[in-house]
Every structure is written in C-alpha cells, then in structure tokens.
Amino acid sequence: MTEAFDTRYGIQQGAALTKDLHFADMGFALPLSVPASGTLVSSVIYTGNYKLFALGAYASGALSVSVQRYLDVEGTVVQGAALTGSVSAAGALNVNNTDGLLHQAVKITFTNSGTAAVTLSLLRLILRAM
Hints:
- Strand 2 (11-13) and strand 3 form a beta hairpin.
- Strands 1, 2, 3, 4, 7, 10 and 12 form a seven-stranded antiparallel sheet that branches. Strands 5, 6, 8, 9 and 11 form a five-stranded antiparallel sheet that branches.
- The protein is mainly beta.
- The chain starts with a strand and ends with a strand.
- The chain has strands at 4-6, 11-13, 18-22, 33-34, 38-41, 45-46, 52-59, 63-70, 83-87, 91-97, 105-112, 118-128.
C-alpha cells in the first residue's frame, strides 16, 4: 500500500487519515515541566472530526493526565467524562480514546502531586479518522 504525507499540515493519507500534533501545536512551550504540586494545561486543541486519538509522553516522574473532549471548538460544551492516565514513576504516559464519541476540541491537563517538578518529553497527540 502506498501512503502520501502532506508536510504542510502533518496529515498522512493512507488506510486511515491521521494527524500528528507536537507540543507547540498543543499550546505548550519548552521546557515542558509540571511544577511540584502543580498542573500544566494546554490550550484548547482543535481536533476537527477525528474520532480517535492517542496522547503519549515520557515523564521523568509520577504524573497523571486528563484529556477532556468538547463538542464545540471553543472548549465550553463538555463531551463525556475526561479520559485519564497516570504513571507512578519515570516512564511512558499515554491516554487512548477508542470510544468514537464525536468531539471538535480537547484540553489536556497534566497534574503533579509530588514534591519535585516532572519534565515531559516526546509529547505527541495523534488523531485518526475512523
């Protein structure tokens, strides 16, 4: 199977349409650090009509993440419960949306309940059409 990749928009066309977002596309700036007993919150991220997504990052310590979906592009009309994930020590952190609920935007919140800052690296949000 041949796949095409449009570098202008980060959209891959193949068996399923996908879009790969990096940290800057999510409203984050380097360094990606969650302060001790603090949070790091993204801007509202427009996801269009992509129904599935995978959020992944590497965390330098214990951390939890919540991804809230919204029916509107402004991020005001909540769609279902937030999807959550956590890591109890340094390692990969991910959240997958597989229920196919329609949404137009998401907001990501990283929460650190520890006593030291946690650094995030390799942060990616991959969107996929069904």
